[in-house]
UniProtKB/TrEMBL annotation:
Signal peptide: none
The name this protein goes by in its record: Calcium-dependent secretion activator 2 isoform X11
Span of domain C2: 286-403
Biological processes per GO annotation: dense core granule exocytosis; positive regulation of exocytosis; protein transport; synaptic vesicle exocytosis
An annotated GO cellular component: presynapse
Gene name per UniProt: cadps2
Record bears the keyword Protein transport: yes
InterPro entries named among the record's database cross-references: C2_dom, C2_domain_sf, CAPS, CAPS_C2, MUN_dom, Munc13_1, PH-like_dom_sf, PH_domain
Superkingdom of this protein's organism: Eukaryota
Main location: membrane
Pfam families reported in the protein's UniProt record: C2_CAPS (PF25341), MUN (PF06292), PH (PF00169)
Compartments, as annotated in UniProt: Cytoplasmic vesicle membrane; Synapse
Alphabetized SMART domains for the sequence: DUF1041, PH
Length: 1187
């Protein structure tokens, strides 16, 4: 190792050693703050902090949610909940920002839960209402399932135990826990703590109170030295120098008042007297003096005595079976009695409890036996013992010789008993001393002294006589200095001496034991509050002795160097240290420990840490501004390293410092040092930069709105930092301009981060399809970012909502550049870009701030030509498909019409739905598109109807005119086409505007007229067939040549052979024609209304034709064959059409009645002339007829 390296190593070692010594010294001060606090308490109203989520836990949570999504858990859930969990998993758990939250140390399980809760609240509110199931119930159920997924297979009791331990450490800590915490904070080892604990006598309350009084006296002396030597800090104004000294004195006086307010006695009366400190020279005083500060009423002691009587020895004068008992009493108190025992075994183990105010009480115990004589009035006393116990008397049971009456044979009567006298809290020491004072001329004699603490600052040496509650003499110890002294010549009594000295007075004390002297000097040293610490004479003479000291002041290691080091730490005068520097180190290390613990603290100290820091500042005079300036520096250090720090905490500390700098005295301090102001200005500038950076990176500094309300608090803090003083508010325009700059930068940062996350590299040479695919994915991510901003951050920017909208526009403007580049390389007639428009437009039109904004209008301008071009091409394509389709149409039924009509109506509907799904945001252009599509649909439908009518007419011309005619399937298809067109017309051609309504009505009229023409044409075809049947019947008309030939031929032939009569083939053929066509129409035509209309017209036309035929033969009698044929045709037609649903009003029309009456008359005439020529045919209804 070179010399330079050795020098560096030595320098490093010295630095570490100095740092270790400083940490130990700080730890000594902290120990005293914890051991005897009198200014601060552990706060119980602080917000409970949650446990942190670490990287391993985050990975475990991801795996549990993924297992649920894969169906690997037993948790039953519906599709809506699964979708919510999937969205939560993809957008939150897998996001980089969630990982950053965990890394920052400010993320808890509650944050995870709140993000999920906020996500599902929006989803559940969008769900439709369900009868009997409120949305609050759904939310509660989903949250319960979320908790089950998050917890996984863990034991449900474990979180409860963790939470319990967390609540204990977060709310209240014992002294031992505080010691252990600050050992970790300051790097103090356990054995070092034990040495310092014993050396500081932390378990001795009196020593700690005395230490405080010495510290306060030292601070008062320091204030006087500063005023005398004019060693003031540099203030912003010279007038503050005098005020500074007054503040130092006031702070010490406040601490004295706090200390004075603490109760001295906890067992007896609660003394809280606030006696004024006096500079009078007081020594032994008579009780009768009037001008004394202390009087006999001020010094009250209360003792508890326990007297235990065990047994009696030496009782020989009584019979073995005789009853004995004992009584016990304290002078001036009640008398107690033991149980009875036999003289052969006088044992009791009985305890009596007494209270007294006598420091030297008189205890009497007597032994009695019962007298059995009739005239006996009192029991016989066998012996007694009188004791004068003190608090220093032995506590264990001992034998005492009893005083027996004269002539008693039991001369060696002894009783075993114990008298325990407890020391009250305000009694610090007691014992017998020789004493003599100058002012009180009394002889040197032995007295019983008690050192009494009347209040925190008032002690008195009181001498007592036996059986007296009030002190005989007292000496107030204020102003005295106690020390060891050499033996005084001429004084008889006492072996070792010490004295108490004051201006004008000297009191000498002596006792018989060195150990007792040490105890008395230490007790009086703590009571006087003197700065000088008495040293036993042995240490003065021999400094290297390792044994022989009555009581080593510090029970430390045997190593002399270590012993001296610990002694130096303990005996160091606190007022000589720069506690501002020490506290800065303590606070920094405490914050470091807090940020590294298992709680998501966000920079907040735990209650125990707050308590210790508060007590340290109050006890050692750390200025509040210095404390908060140091705190701000440390918090900003963590915040600049991406750790989550609560801005409310920064706001509180900054406001305190600002109020102090501007003279508002938040802690009562009116002095402001130059150093404080310079540090404040430096911190203000640094804090401004930090806050602007956080607002610029608000998506990453406050991911998903966590911590709750942090962004809003940051904006509030920024506004506070911008204030020039504590009263003048910041101009709104200044704040707005600053936020605008931050959000403009935020847009660029967020977009670049989004490109990196999506791994999209904008390359003009890339394929058009790939660029469009990238833009679609990037558009989805942009929408997700803006939705998250609105969901999690809009509330924070509620006062500047227009700035958040401008931020969104700036963000979209960056996307617009890439979007335009991708659209420019797309083919001219490519319609793959419309899904991108729909995606962006559906989001933008629902946002009140972005709808018809700059980006939205630009998007419309880009896609207007594409939409118009698309509609033009579709119109041309549909028109061509109609022309080609009807030319090649086979008229086979397809769904509700033919192949061509179905294709037409589908295309028109699809085109209109496409434009409707565009949700065009600009009302006028949207109206124009709708109008154009409706008019186009009307034109296309008109062409369809006309082409169908033309085809129908051609079909009818080619159809047969005989009863062999059957309605072709194609004709039914044509009817169905018109009916479908009628239905589609209301959907495809109707607009609210009156002009389009008229146009639609014209198309509707055209369809109705075409229907009528087609029905008329078909009815005419049916009428032609009926006319053919009637023409055949006309051959049998009376008086015609053909009728005569037929009649003559039949009559002539009938003379020789049996001639068959004319059959009913003609009627049957026609009836079959009617029925089959009825079935065809009924089965093939889909609209019932038009079928009924057709059948009514057909029936009416048929009856009218028959009626006309009969009317033409009104003067002629019908031939039997004619009559039989017509009766069957008419009856069957009537019944068939009635079965098809033709109403009675139509069936029984005038033509039918005329026919019915004529045929009935002809039937009667035929029955008269020919008899059974009709072969049972009749116009009368009969259930037996063959229908």
């Amino acid at each position: 190792m070179t010399r330079r390296q050795q020098w560096k190593e030595r320098e490093r070692f010295q630095k570490e050693e100095e740092e270790r010594k400083m940490n130990l010294q700080i730890y000594v001060f902290v120990l005293r703050c914890i051991a005897y606090p009198f200014n601060a308490k552990q706060p119980t109203d602080m917000t409970r902090r949650q446990q942190k989520v670490n990287k391993q836990q985050l990975q475990t949570v991801k795996e549990r949610f993924l297992a649920f999504l894969n169906g690997e858990t037993q948790i039953v859930a519906d599709e809506a909940f699964c979708n919510a969990v999937r969205s939560y998993y993809e957008s939150f758990l897998k996001s980089e920002r969630a990982s950053r939250m965990v890394q920052s140390g400010g993320c808890s399980a509650n944050d995870f839960r709140e993000v999920f809760k906020k996500n599902i609240e929006r989803r559940v509110r969008s769900l439709p209402e369900i009868d009997g199931l409120s949305k609050e119930t759904v939310l509660s159920s989903w949250i319960a399932k979320y908790d089950a997924i998050y917890r996984g297979e863990e034991d449900t009791r474990r979180p409860t135990q963790r939470a319990h331990m967390g609540s204990v450490s977060e709310l209240i800590l014992s002294k031992e826990q505080l010691y252990e915490m600050f050992q970790q904070i300051l790097g103090v080892r356990k054995f070092e703590h034990q040495l310092l604990y014993n050396g500081c006598q932390l378990d001795n309350v009196d020593e700690q109170a005395a230490q405080i009084r010495r510290e306060l006296d030292g601070r008062l002396q320091l204030a006087e030295n500063i005023a005398r030597e004019r060693r003031y800090p540099k203030f912003i104004s010279a007038d503050m120098e005098v005020l500074y000294v007054e503040e130092l004195r006031s702070s010490v006086n406040l601490l004295m008042a706090n200390l004075e307010s603490l109760p001295v006695s906890k067992g007896g009366p609660d003394f809280k007297q606030k006696l004024k400190r006096s500079s009078m020279n007081n020594s032994f005083l008579d009780l009768g003096d009037e001008g004394d500060i202390l009087s006999k009423s001020d010094v009250v002691l209360s003792f508890t005595l326990e007297i235990v009587i065990v047994e009696v020895h030496g009782l020989k004068s009584l019979a073995p079976n005789q009853v004995v008992y004992c009584t016990m009493e304290v002078e001036g108190g009640e008398k107690l009695q033991t149980d009875q025992a036999e003289a052969s075994r006088p044992q009791w183990e009985t305890q009596g409890d007494f209270t007294t105010t006598h420091p030297l009480p008189s205890v009497k115990v007597k032994l009695f036996t019962e007298r059995t004589g009739v005239l006996a009035l009192e029991d016989k006393e066998l012996g007694r013992v009188v004791l004068n116990p003190t608090t220093n008397s032995p506590k264990q049971a001992e034998f005492h010789r009893m005083v027996v009456p004269r002539n008693s044979p039991d001369t060696d009567l002894r009783i075993k008993l114990a008298v325990r006298m407890d020391k009250p809290p305000n009694m610090k020491h007691s014992g017998f001393l020789y004493a003599s004072g100058q002012r009180l001329r009394k002889r040197w004699k032995k007295r019983y002294f008690v050192l009494v603490q009347v209040s925190q600052y008032t002690f008195a040496m009181c001498s007592y006589r036996e059986k007296k509650a009030e002190p005989q003499e007292l000496m107030q110890l204020e102003g005295y200095t106690v020390d060891y002294c050499d033996p005084q010549p001429g004084l008889q009594g006492g072996c070792v001496f010490f004295n108490a000295v004051k201006e004008g007075d000297l009191v000498i004390f002596a006792c018989d034991d060195e150990q007792d002297r040490v105890l008395w000097v230490q007790a009086m040293y703590r009571a006087t509050g003197q700065s000088y610490k008495p040293v036993p004479p042995q240490l003065n003479r021999t400094t290297n002795r390792k044994e022989g000291n009555p009581k080593p002041p510090t029970p430390i290691s045997l190593n002399p160097s270590q012993r001296q080091g610990v002694e130096d730490l303990i005996s160091a005068t606190p007022s000589r240290f720069d506690h501002s520097t020490l506290f800065r180190v303590l606070q920094k290390k405490t914050l470091q420990h807090r940020m590294n613990d298992s709680f998501s603290c966000l920079g907040w100290f735990s209650p125990g840490q707050v308590f210790v820091l508060d007590e340290y500042c109050a006890r050692y005079g750390v200025r509040g501004c210095h404390r908060h300036l140091s705190y701000l520096k440390d918090l900003m250090d963590y915040s600049e390293k991406s750790a989550l720090v609560d801005p409310t905490l920064l706001h509180y500390s900054y406001a305190f410092c600002a109020s102090h700098i501007h003279g508002n005295r938040p802690d009562g301090m009116g002095t402001v040092t130059v150093e404080e102001k310079e540090q404040f200005e430096s911190i203000r500038s640094r804090l401004m930069t930090l806050l602007m950076n956080q607002i610029t990176h608000f998506r990453y500094c406050f991911p998903f709105g966590r911590p709750d309300g942090a962004l809003k608090a940051t904006l509030s803090l920024l506004e506070r930092v911008l204030m020039r003083d504590i009263t003048t508010p910041v101009p709104s325009e200044e704040m707005k301009n600053l936020l605008q700059k931050c959000l403009e930068k935020a847009a660029q940062i967020n977009y670049s981060q989004l490109l990196d996350y999506a791994q999209i590299k904008v390359d003009p040479e890339e394929a058009a399809d790939k660029q469009l695919e990238d833009m679609l994915m990037l558009g989805e991510l942009c929408i997700e970012v803006l939705q998250q901003n609105d969901e999690h951050h809009s509330e924070a920017f509620s006062w500047w909502s227009d700035l958040l909208a401008d931020h969104a526009e700036a963000f979209l403007c960056l996307y617009r550049q890439n979007l335009d580049s991708a659209l420019q390389v797309q083919p001219a007639d490519s319609w793959n870009t419309f899904p991108l428009f729909q995606l962006l437009n559906n989001f933008l039109r629902t946002d009140p701030h972005l709808c018809n904004g700059p980006f939205h209008k630009h998007l419309q301008d880009v896609f207007v030509p594409l939409v118009v071009r698309y509609i033009d091409l579709m119109e041309s394509s549909i028109a061509q498909s109609i022309h080609r389709g009807f030319e090649q149409e086979t008229w086979q039924p397809v769904s509700n019409g033919s192949a061509t009509s179905e294709d037409l109506f589908w295309k028109l509907d699809a085109l209109q739905m496409f434009v409707l799904d565009l949700n065009w945001p600009e009302p006028e252009f949207a109206k124009h598109l709708e109008q154009r599509l409706k008019l186009m649909a009307s034109d296309m439908m008109e062409a369809c109807v006309k082409r169908t009518k033309s085809a129908f007419d051609a079909k009818m011309q080619k159809a047969s005119k005989s009863t062999e005619f059957r309605v072709p399937l194609s004709v039914c298809t044509m009817f169905n086409i018109l009916m479908d067109a009628k239905k589609q017309c209301s959907k495809l051609c109707v607009l609210d505007c009156s002009q389009e309504q008229q146009y639609h009505s014209r198309i509707d009229v055209l369809i109705d007229e075409t229907f009528k023409e087609m029905i008329s044409s078909l009815i005419s075809k049916f009428a032609v067939v009926l006319d053919g049947v009637l023409s055949k019947l006309s051959r049998y008309d009376e008086g015609t040549f053909f009728s005569s030939i037929l009649s003559f031929t039949v009559k002539a032939a009938a003379k020789y052979v049996e001639v068959p009569k004319p059959g009913m083939d003609l009627a049957d053929t026609y009836i079959t024609f009617v029925r089959q066509n009825q079935d065809i129409l009924r089965d093939r035509i889909s609209d019932e209304l038009y079928i009924e209309n057709l059948f009514e017209q057909w029936y009416s036309s048929s009856m009218k034709a028959v009626c006309v035929w009969l009317t033409d033969r009104l003067d002629l009698q019908l031939h039997t064959y004619q009559l039989k044929t017509l009766i069957k045709i008419v009856k069957k037609t009537y019944r068939d059409f009635r079965l098809q649903g033709v109403l009675d009003g139509t069936l029984n029309n005038r033509s039918y009645e005329t026919i019915y009456n004529r045929l009935t008359v002809e039937e009667a005439t035929a029955a008269v002339k020919a008899g059974g020529a009709l072969q049972g045919l009749s116009m009368r209804d009969s259930d037996e007829e063959d229908i």
